[in-house]
């Protein structure tokens, strides 16, 4: 079953789907600062690449993957001080995801898979709240692998594991692979490393990029980014999404 885009189908084409084998995939990113070299939509680009790669793998497992239109707006308080960032309240995001899951439940979908590329703690909390609410209500399974945790995080490269991975080598490589025309290459190659760990700063109580040691909204080693690494990382992200969905549906007996 090939990956299909929900927004490009007609209603009659949607009606012909087998909902019991259909997995709706929602790419979630953010509109926020990603250094002086990557676009505000970096997380959306990464989420869409993850969703497509994951959907292609799910198709080989016999599911019908359905790519939903991306959700680009979410909670982004860490970058709120930077021009261009648009941040919603976590409660708004949680409510939106719960309503979406309810709507897909009405359509009989097997699961809602979230391809998430935005790692702000407030945003991750909003997703976790939606997953818990759906579980408690006994409604559609929301599958949302948290890339900041095991077993997923160790698979995403050395820079990612350091926690210094916002607009650095990890994210820069993916954007170079997916949307190279949006990378400000000259600026990227001139940027000095910023090894300050966001994850460590968050545990210490930091609430913004500035407090965490990122005055230009980037962390890590952006000048080391390559399209080849980005392509490999996209494949890994797709594997993570597909594995999480397959495991969740096996537990519910929907596999």
Word description of this protein:
With 255 residues, this protein is of the alpha/beta class. The chain has a single domain (4-9, 18-247), classed as Creatininase (Rossmann fold, 3-Layer(aba) Sandwich), CATH 3.40.50.10310. The chain is 45% helix and 9% strand. The chain is globular and about 50 Å long. The model has no long low-confidence stretch (mean pLDDT 95).
List keywords for this structure.
10 helices, Rossmann fold, single chain, 9% strand, 45% helix, five-stranded parallel β-sheet, 255 residues
Please summarize what this structure is.
By secondary structure, the protein is an alpha/beta fold.
CATH topology annotation:
Rossmann fold
Element-level helix/strand string: EHEHEHEHEHHHHHH
- The side-by-side strand order for the widest beta sheet comes to 1-3-2-4-5
Q: Which percent bin holds the helix content?
A: 40-55%
Q: Report the C-alpha radius of gyration, rounded.
A: 18 Å
Q: Uncertain runs with pLDDT below 50, 5 residues or more?
A: none
What's the count of strands? 5
Domain count, please report it: 1
> What's the CATH architecture name?
3-Layer(aba) Sandwich
Structural class: alpha/beta
First-last Cα distance = 15 Å
């Amino acid at each position: 079953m090939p990956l299909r885009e929900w927004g490009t189908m007609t209603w009659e084409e949607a009606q012909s789907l087998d909902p019991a084998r259909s997995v709706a995939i929602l790419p979630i990113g953010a509109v926020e600062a990603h250094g002086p070299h990557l676009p505000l939509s970096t997380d959306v680009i990464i989420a869409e690449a993850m969703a497509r790669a994951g959907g292609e793998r799910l198709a080989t497992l016999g599911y019908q993957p359905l790519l939903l239109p991306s959700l680009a707006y979410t909670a982004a308080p860490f970058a709120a001080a930077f021009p261009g960032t648009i941040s919603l309240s976590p409660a708004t995001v949680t409510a939106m995801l719960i309503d979406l899951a309810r709507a897909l439940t009405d359509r009989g979908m097997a699961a809602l898979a979230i391809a998430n590329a935005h790692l702000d703690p407030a945003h991750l909390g909003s997703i976790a709240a939606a997953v818990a609410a759906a579980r408690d209500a006994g409604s559609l399974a929301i599958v949302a692998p948290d890339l900041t945790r095991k077993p997923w995080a160790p698979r995403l490269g050395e820079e990612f594991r350091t926690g210094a991975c916002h607009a650095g080598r990890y994210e820069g490589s993916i954007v170079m692979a997916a949307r190279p025309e949006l990378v400000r290459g000259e600026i990227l190659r001139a940027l000095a490393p910023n090894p300050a760990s966001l994850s460590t700063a968050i545990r210490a109580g930091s609430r913004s990029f500035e407090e965490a040691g990122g005055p230009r909204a980037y962390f890590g080693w952006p000048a080391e980014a390559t399209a080849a690494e980005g392509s490999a990382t996209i494949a890994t992200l797709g594997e993570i999404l597909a594995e999480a969905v397959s495991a969740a549906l096996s537990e519910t007996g929907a596999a």
